[in-house]
Amino acid sequence: DIQMTQSPSSLSASVGDRVSITCRASQSISNYLNWYQQKPGKAPNLLINAASSLQSGVPSRFSGSGSGTDFTLTITSLQPEDFATYYCQQSYNTPPYTFGQGTKLEIK
Amino acid sequence: QVQLVESGGGLVKPGGSLRLSCAASGFTFSDYYMTWIRQAPGKGLEWVSYISRSGSPTYYADSVKGRFTISRDNANNSLYLQMNSLRAEDTAVYYCARRVSAYNSFDPWGQGTLVTVSS
Description:
The structure holds two protein chains of two kinds.
Chain A: E1 4-7, E2 10-13, E3 19-25, E4 33-38, E5 45-49, E6 53-54, E7 62-67, E8 70-75, E9 85-90, E10 103-107
Parallel strand pairs in A: 2-10
Antiparallel strand pairs in A: 1-3, 3-8, 4-5, 4-9, 5-6, 7-8, 9-10
Chain B: E1 3-7, E2 10-12, E3 18-25, E4 34-39, E5 45-51, E6 58-60, E7 68-73, E8 78-83, E9 92-99, E10 106-109, E11 113-117
Parallel strand pairs in B: 2-11
Antiparallel strand pairs in B: 1-3, 3-8, 4-5, 4-9, 5-6, 7-8, 9-10, 9-11
């Protein structure tokens, strides 16, 4: 099975900062990589699929990049509502579709 | 609007069984692959199971293979997860979600239903 290593596990930042979260796959997954945001007590919400395709309604300060084994989620100009936990998920070929361990983004 | 609503969670003893349901509305249910994903308290997301539009094929995480069965009723816009031989480590919020692209991304997710396995 493909393993996903997400880093950092937690991140402290201020409103207006630019932050990046990385995700590494244990083998090449092309661009079969999705990013989700989860706020406390809520279900996850899809932000980006296919590594870099922003979902409708997601602010343009979110962006995704990468291909193969290394991927990055970048948030420019952090807003108060962006403080949440972020997960990557590989969706290459047939299941299992594994998630990264998550990155908790906290206010500094 | 597109909506998924899970039900059927609760407290069950180790070794017991539970059947989760997911009611879909706002879209043509039979057109979409569906999945179950769980989240243990304070932990990350774990993909559990996946079912095609017709009901076959199905896929399972190794942690639940042989104990859980995913199924669907396209006539009634419903997804199910039959969980047998439950263990303490199955305690989690269980979410159903819809596959929305060829990249196997999931959107939306239901609100989740809590399953607690404890004596």
